[in-house]
Each structure stands twice: as C-alpha cells, then as structure tokens.
Specification:
With 772 residues, the protein is mostly beta strands. It contains 10 helices and 47 strands. The protein has a 5-stranded mixed β-sheet with strand order 2-9-8-5-6, with no helix packed on it. Strands 30, 31, 33, 34 and 43 form a 5-stranded antiparallel β-sheet that branches. Strands 36-41-42-39-40 form a 5-stranded mixed β-sheet, with no helix packed on it.
Length: 772
C-alpha cells in the first residue's frame, strides 16, 4: 500500500499542470469557453384524461455551478404530437431558476402520445443544446397489457470501445425483451461454439464479461431466460492492434489497468479526464505493454467523468465513470397527517431529519396510480443527460433509480459521450444567440402632445415595476426587460404640469426574440417500456363516468358530499376606505394635504413625495408608509408629487399594515384611480388600459378536477389528489406542511423532485397512509 499512496500523490501533483502541447486539450478548452445551461421539468403525471390539466414545474441550472440559474428568464415550451407536428408554443417566465406552467388537455388532444420540448434561445449557440424533451400520453381506456413477444434484444459494448485480440477485455452486455425491459438471464460465452464462460445478468439485464479473445477463433454470446428461451449474439469487430482498459473502484481509489499490443509499446499517451470545462491530464508511457495507475476519488469530479486516452492529439479510447454524488434518493424523515376540522381537507407535514434550504415540487397521487413516470427524475436529467448521447441517456433513464453502483458502472461502459467526436468535428461555439431577459416593449403615443403634458406614467404589474418618463415632445418609448403576462392589464397615463392624470391614445407592441434551430427526431424518445403497467382493464365509458365535468373548481378544497355548495367569494378590505367626493376635493385639493389631515407626515416638494408615520415600527429602521395604486405596490412614488385629490376614486388607510407583511410594517395606503366623473360633465378617463396578448404564459394556481367519485378504480388508477409546485424549506425550520383534499382513500404516494441551495438534487417517493 505504501507504493500505491506514493503513486497517488505523484498523480495529484501532475494533474494540476495544464498540458499545453496537446492539441485535443486545447480544442476541448476552447469548446467549453461559453457556459452552458440545462432544464428539467417535473410533471405532476404523464398519463391524463381529457379535461384534466398537466401541471409542471421547471428547474434551470447553471452547469458551471450546478446550482439554480439566477440569470435565466425566458423558457420556450412547445407541444408536439407523435408525428412531430407542432401543436402549441408559449413562453414561460423563470425566476431564480424555476418556472411554472399548465397545459389544459382539451378537445384538441386526441388519445395518443405527445411531447414537451423546453429550451432557451441561448441554447442555439451549441451543437449539443441541452433541450429538455419528455413525453406524456392522453388516454381514454386501459387495456390489459399484452405479453411481450418472445424475443431477446442483446446489446454489447467493449470497455475499450473495440475488442483487441490477445488483450484482457471487458464487454458490457444488456439483455432486454421486445418492450425494452431489462431481463435477468443466464449468459454463456461460446468460443468456436464451445461454452468457455458462464455469467448472469442483473434484474436490469446488465452484465460484464471479461475474456481474452484469441486470433483465429470465433466468439458469440448466448442469453437464456428462466423459461428456457435463448438467443445468440455474434461478437464481431475484434481488432489486431489497440489498447484495452479495465477500470475498478477500490475503496477511495480508482484503479486503471491499461494494456497495449506490441506495436504500441513504449509509445506516449495522455490520460485526460473531464467534465465539460473542468479537466485533469497526465502523460503516460506504456512499459512492458501495460501500465497501472491509481487515482484518488477525491480528485475526480462529482457526477459523470469522461475518461479519454489520447494519442497524438486524438482520442483512441473513451470510458465514462460516475463518481457518486450527495444527491438524495430516499426521504430521510417522517410525516404526520391531520384532519382539518369542519373541512373536507387534511394537512400533511413532512419532517426532514437534515437541515437544508430546499426548492421542491410534489405530486400527490393515489397509491395504485399508473400515471406517474418515475424515469423522469431530476437526478438522471442533470447528472447524465447533459453529457451523454440521446441513445445512451435513454438507457440510463430506463434503469431503476435504486440501481447498484456495479450495475451503473456497466451502464457507463455501454454509454457514449456526446462531446468527444464533436470537439474534433466542429469549431468552438460562438455566442450568436443571446440569453433573453423578458421582452422589449415599444409604446407609441398616437396623439398630439400638449405643452402641459410632462410625464408618461406606467403602473406596475405583477412582474413589472411602475415607471415615469419625461415626455420632452417624444411620442415613442422603448422599454427593455419587461415581463408582460397574457390577459393582464397594463395601465398608462400622461401627467400634466398641474399634476392631473389623463388617458393617452397609445399602441403597445412587443415580440419575443426566440429561435429554434434544433430539429428533433421524436421517434427516438418513444420507448416501449412506457406502456401502461396495469393488470386491470378500464373501458372508455368507466373512465368518462368518473371524469365527467372535470371543470376546475374555485377552491382547492373539495367537498365529497352529495349536496355541494359553491363557496361565496368574500372580498375583505383591510383598513378604512373613504370615497373621494366633490366635497373632499374642495376641502383638501391635493393628495398630500388629505394625507396630512389623516395623521401622516408627508413630504411633497420639488418632485419628491413620501409618506411617513410619526413613530417607527419597521425592523428595518424606516418609518415609510407603503403605497399601493390600483393594486400595484409602488417603489417610486415621486409622480404623486402635487397630484390633485380628484384623480382618485377612493383612499383606503390601513395604519396597522395588517395583511401586508413586512411591506406594510408602517401601514399601507391604497389608492384607487378615478373611473367615474367627479363633476357632472367630466367624462375623461385617467388611464389607458391595455390587455396583454402573446406575452408570457400566466401562472395559474392548481385546482383539483371535479371528479365524480374517489373510491373507484378509475380514480385510483388515473386520478390526481394534489400538486404543490413551490415548496420552499428553510434550514432553520426543516419541515413542510400543506393542505389537500381528503379523498377518503387509505393510502397515497408523494413524488418529490427538487434541489437544495448548494446544488444537491432530491428525487424520491414517499408512500403515506391517509387513515389511521
């Protein structure tokens, strides 16, 4: 062991050096100069019935940090049918690395398979854009699954890419049935039709065969099922010259055993290990036809490592290795269930044993559900998809998440990097497509401005701050980084020297600067393994009976009683509201005078306007009173300077600030702009309202479908209990609580996906008992 430790230390030292003379490494470094980004979308389920909704939460990460991407905003989501025809496309707004969406499964979705495709404009810069693609299916009946055809699919791949005569070779093997499901079989190696070795494949159909092929002999593999069915697979393309590699993890070290044929003896090679822009390199020279190396696991990159052996600037061998991460694949904690009194709801509390800052999403489905695709996990998506070819990733995707380390390493042998060949084939990526941050809105005033018109005012919306612009005889304005949401109302006004508001005639335009240069062959993403795994058949009529009138309710809480009553929407106004009449206008004239009379300290001079309390209550040390205009919280109140009181319909004063959180710590004043004439002949509007079209998709709150019954086979197999896309846990309080409908079912399953603040991925399911 002393020699091993000495060797490891020497390798640690040389790995810190950059091999300048190696042309491949130079190309590699240039290829990853531009940072990349990846997307993952968590679907609440992947099989739906018409009139349901597909709910989704997206996660965007910066691949340089492996953490949520703080600068990514515009995400294009497109829907395709099974023929690859575009059905719909919309822009989703990401904030702090996450985004939400919903797809209503209406009459345009006929039974069949569909595909989601999510990408950013920035991804067009790369030959391997990390576009997210996932399928979902609309169903109207469930047929009992057919037995797969009695056929074995045998795939092999050497650890050294090519088998070499007279060298020690490892051969990765996967056995599956005609549906693509891995099978446990007996495997025999035949040399000139004589059995020379026997092994068994795992439950995932994976096996590793070690042998030393001899020239002049023929080899084949025979796989035999437990039922006695067998098929043969011919081993071809065995080469006379080359190098072989056997990789083994022993405790905290990765052992390399490298052999070469005689014609390559004494030649120089470079061992090159990378994870995109991060890399290690070491020159090696074969002595006596072989070389053994040991590398500390700590030196490798967390997650997938691509190992290359280079000769004269060309890769001659590729091997992928997955270095285990700290990702969480099993819930570490407990849960509690409590019935909420006088409601048909229950509260679920998840108590985590470890403290962490988590951003999670949760889909809650019946225990006997057949609609959730566990293969679509955030761990597989971010740890493997960015680095593998599509075919290789689909192999990883079909494997159980609880796969053993040994099986995963065989899958790595059978996988291929998406970059190795491209680095030689293509030029370094160029930044031709910028990352889009919202849209540019162009506003044109279609009327002649008057000398008294001095300011253009735009009222803030959910994702846009209010603004004021001096007119200076301008009638065209351009605003960058705006986030208009479909169907929201944006309001604009001109402010005169007399501080009166008036509605201008305007035209508002915007256009997303998004391009999609990636053609996708969706047939590659159709795997037979995604077929419904259910022993129960359900006819179309039985499904429709349970899903009839699946209109979304106004509340998340659903009553299961026969006599359902619609809940009345009660709008509560906190604070004292006063209508502004002609008498108040004559008495006070200006807003500032009115607010002083109401007991506030008001500064209103030289374009400055602020309202304060006479006693400080905010923990921030400020005594500034919050102001809301037409529902929009104002961050800049200067445009209210000298504004006449007649510009407002009403003023609501909430001196306690109750209901507004820290924003209202010193109290809240709510202003409602005038919509009715205060004087008999005054019919002028104060604001121009524009309804947004072709903006970002609106963020909708999850609402349960109105299922006819819960205690039916259709609901237990296909129904949805709840969807919580925005679960935020703080390390100081490692607990999550949420309310959901009480379906009276005995059991359910919570499917969790998400990420911690430090980039640790979470993907697991939590079986829960809903009744004691």
């Amino acid at each position: 062991m002393k020699n091993l430790f000495t060797l490891v230390l020497s390798i640690s030292f040389v790995f810190l050096a950059y091999t300048q003379e190696n042309s491949y490494i130079k190309k590699h470094q240039a290829y990853f100069e531009i940072p990349r980004e990846s997307l993952f979308i968590h679907l609440n389920k992947s099989k739906l019935v018409k009139q349901e909704s597909l709910w989704l939460k997206g996660y965007a990460i910066n691949r340089q940090t492996d953490k949520l991407h703080q600068n990514l905003r515009n995400v294009n989501l497109a829907i395709y049918n099974y023929r690859g025809e575009l059905l719909n496309s919309e822009m989703l707004l990401a904030n702090e690395g996450v985004f939400l969406g919903q797809i209503k499964i209406d009459s345009t979705y006929q039974p069949g398979k569909y595909f989601l495709k999510a990408m950013t404009n920035y991804m067009n810069n790369f030959k391997e854009p990390d576009v997210f693609i996932e399928s979902f299916e609309v169903i109207d009946k469930i047929d009992k699954p057919e037995l797969p055809k009695q056929k074995l699919i045998i795939k092999t791949k050497p650890e050294n890419q090519h088998l070499i005569y007279d060298l020690n070779n490892n051969l990765g093997i996967r056995i599956s049935n005609s549906n693509g499901i891995g099978l446990k079989t007996s495997i025999e190696l035949l040399e000139n039709n004589k059995v020379v070795k026997k092994i068994k494949s795992s439950k995932n159909g994976l096996a590793l065969l070690n042998f030393r092929p001899q020239q002049g002999k023929k080899y084949k593999i025979r796989a035999t099922t437990a039922g006695g069915y067998s098929e043969d697979h011919l081993i071809s393309d065995i080469r006379l010259s080359g190098i072989s590699l056997q990789l083994n993890k022993v405790k905290d070290y990765l052992l390399f055993n490298i052999e070469a044929t005689k014609d390559l003896n004494e030649e120089n090679f470079t061992l090159f290990i990378h994870q995109e822009e991060k890399f290690l390199s070491k020159k090696i020279k074969l002595e006596k036809l072989n070389k053994s190396l040991a590398i500390s696991i700590d030196q490798l990159f967390e997650g997938l490592n691509t190992i290359l052996i280079l000769k004269e600037g060309q890769p001659v061998l590729e091997r992928l290795f997955f270095n285990q991460t700290s990702d969480v694949k099993k819930f570490n904690g407990n849960y509690t269930i409590n019935q909420i009194k006088n409601t048909d709801s229950i509260q679920v509390s998840l108590n985590f044993n470890e403290k962490a800052n988590l951003q999670l999403s949760a889909s809650i489905l019946p225990k006997d559900q057949i609609t959730y695709n566990t293969n679509n996990s955030i761990i597989k998506n971010f740890r493997f998809r960015p680095y593998l070819t599509t075919e290789s990733y689909l192999l990883i995707k079909t494997l159980d998440q609880s796969i053993s380390i040994k099986e995963l390493d065989i899958a790595m042998i059978m996988s291929e990097s998406r970059y190795t060949k491209n680095i030689l084939k293509y030029q370094r990526p160029k930044l031709n497509y910028k990352r889009q941050n919202g849209v540019k809105q162009t506003l044109n005033i279609n009327q002649k401005l008057k000398p008294n018109d001095i300011l253009l005012l735009g009222i803030g919306t959910r994702f846009n701050k209010e603004f004021t612009e001096y007119l200076n005889d301008r009638r065209k304005f351009e605003f960058e980084n705006r986030y208009p949401i479909n169907s929201e109302i944006q309001k604009f006004a001109i402010i005169t020297k007399q501080r009166n508001f008036k509605a201008p005639k305007i035209k508002l335009n915007h256009k997303f600067n998004f391009q999609d240069h990636l053609d996708v062959d969706f047939s590659k993403y159709v795997t037979e393994q995604e077929k419904i795994d259910s022993e129960t058949a359900l006819s179309s009529s039985r499904i429709v009976a349970n899903f009839t009138n699946t209109n979304q309710l106004d509340e998340v809480l659903i009553s299961t009683s026969k006599n359902r009553e619609k809940k009345k929407e009660i709008k509560l106004t906190r604070g004292d509201k006063e209508e502004i009449t002609e008498d108040e206008v004559k008495r006070f004239f200006k807003l500032s005078v009115y607010l002083r009379y109401k007991g506030f300290k008001v500064l209103d001079q030289q374009g400055t306007f602020s309202v304060q309390t006479f006693s400080q209550r905010s923990i921030s040390g400020s005594n500034e009173v919050a102001i809301i205009l037409d529902g929009a919280r104002l961050t800049d109140t200067s445009f209210l300077s000298n504004v006449p009181l007649n510009q407002f319909e009403s003023v609501t004063i909430n001196k306690s600030g109750f209901g507004e959180g820290l924003f209202g710590a010193n109290g809240v004043i709510k202003l409602e702009s005038r919509k009715t004439a205060i004087y008999g002949d005054d019919k002028d509007q104060l604001f121009t309202s524009i309804k947004i079209e072709d903006g970002f998709a609106p963020i909708k709150k999850f609402k349960n479908p109105n299922y006819t019954f819960y205690n039916t086979l259709a609901f237990k197999n296909l129904g949805t209990i709840a969807w919580f896309p925005n679960l935020i846990m703080k390390s100081e309080n490692p607990k999550l609580s949420f309310k959901m409908v009480d379906t009276r079912l005995k059991s359910a399953v919570i499917f969790i996906e998400g990420i911690s603040k430090n980039g640790q991925l979470h993907s697991y399911k939590i079986p829960i008992k809903l009744t004691k």
